[in-house]
Design a protein that fits this description.
A hairpin with a 4-residue loop joins strand 2 and strand 3. It contains 17 helices and 12 strands. The chain has helices spanning 2-16, 21-29, 35-50, 52-62, 70-85, 90-101, 105-129, 132-136, 140-149, 154-161, 178-187, 228-233, 250-257, 275-288, 332-335, 338-355, 378-387, and strands at 167-171, 192-194, 199-202, 219-221, 240-244, 267-272, 293-296, 311-317, 359-369, 392-395, 405-406, 415-422. Strands 5, 6, 7, 8, 9, 10, 11 and 12 form an 8-stranded mixed β-sheet that branches.
Amino acid sequence: MRKLQKLAADTLEDVLAGAALHQVLPHRLQKLETPGERGALQDIVYGSLRQLGRLDVWLEALLERPLTDPQLGWLLRVALYQLAYTRAPAHAVVHNAVTAAGEGWRRGLANAVLRNFQRRRPELEKMADDSPRGRWSHPDWWIEKLQAEHPAHWQTILEAGLQHPPFTLRVNARWGDATKYLQLLIEADLPARQTGVDAVTLDKAVSVHSLPGFDQGWVSVQDAGAQWAARLLDAQPGERVLDACAAPGGKTGHILERIAPDANPVMLSALDIDSTRLARVQENLDRLHLEAALIEGDAAHPEAWWDGQLFDRILADVPCSASGVVRRNPDIKWLRRPDDIAQFSTQQAVMMDALWPLLAPGGTLLYATCSIFNAENDGQVQAFLARHAEDAVRCSLPEPLSDGSLLPDAEHDGFFYALLRKT
C-alpha cells in the first residue's frame, strides 16, 4: 500500500503542476506488477482528483499552518481519500502513509493529521459541506459559471461530476442489436441494461477483452451521449462524409456501422491533426472490419489537405473545454482556467468557418462538443448563424435534444449538438 500511496501522490503532484493525467498515469502504472495494483492506483488517483476540493478543505482544517512540503501534502490527500472513500483498513492507511512521509517532523505531522481526521470526521464533513469548493469539489469559478448558465440544473451537473462514469458499450449494428448483446452479457454473468438505441451499460466496468465479441468488433466502448452524433449526422449510402477531429475514432466507427453491408458504402474521410491519434482511429477501424480514408491535417486549414470535392455531411466534433466529461477526466476541472473557454470558443469559430465551404448545398454539418458551457455551445452556434445568415439554417433535433444540450447524469456524459443545413 505504501508504494501505491507514493505513486498516487507523485501523480497528483505532476497533474496539478500542469501535466495531463492521461500522459502521467501510464508511466506510474508501469511501475506496478499486478492488474490489481494497477487498478487500485487508478482508482485512488481518479477518486482523489474527483474529490480534491473536499480533500483540500479537510487538510487545511487539520493543519495549524500552511504546509511547506508540497510532496507531503499530496501524500496526505491520498491517505485522506483512502480513509474517507475506500474500504482499505484505516490502520493500514495511516501506518503506511506515516512511514512513507519520511523521518522526523514529517512522520509526526502525518500521524497527527490522519489520526485527527478519524477523530474529527463528522465535524470536518460538515465544514466541507458548508464550502462550495468542499461540497462540490470543483473550482469556485466553475461552480459560479454553472449557477449562472444552468440555474435549474447546476447541482445535478456538479453531482454527476463526482460519480464514477457509466461503462457503456455501443453494439455494432452490422453484427446485431442491443437485445441480442444483452443476452450474451447475461450468459457471461455481466449484469447490464439498455440505455440507448445501440447502447448497453454494464453495472460495473470490466476489461474490454472479457466482453463477448469485443475483439471481433461486436461492440465498442462509447458513452451513450456520444452515440447521438452518428444518429444525428445520419449519413446515407453513397454519400461523401467528413469526420473532422476524428480521433480516437469512436464516432467514425459508428457512422460506418449504421450503413448496411450490402448498401453503397459511405465514402468517409477521417481527419485529425495528430498522427499518433490517427493511428488509433485505424486500430479501431481494423477491429471493426471497417474502412475510411485517414487524413492527417488541421480542420482549421483545409487548403493543406482538401481535394476540392464537396462533402454531403460533415461531423465537426471540435476541440473544447471537455467540461461535460470531467468525471472521466477529473484533472480537467483543476487545470482549466476561466479564460480557456474564450480561447476554445475562438478556435471553434475559426474551424467552423473553415469547414463550411467544404459542405455541398443541401448538405448538413453537425456541430458537436463535450462541453456544458454556453460560449462553446448555443452561443457559438448563434454567432455562426449570424455570420452565415445567407446560407445556413439550424435544424430541429429530437427529444431530449430539443435545445441541443445533453447535460450529464447517471446514464451519460454532457454533450451539445447543433445540426446546420447549407441552403
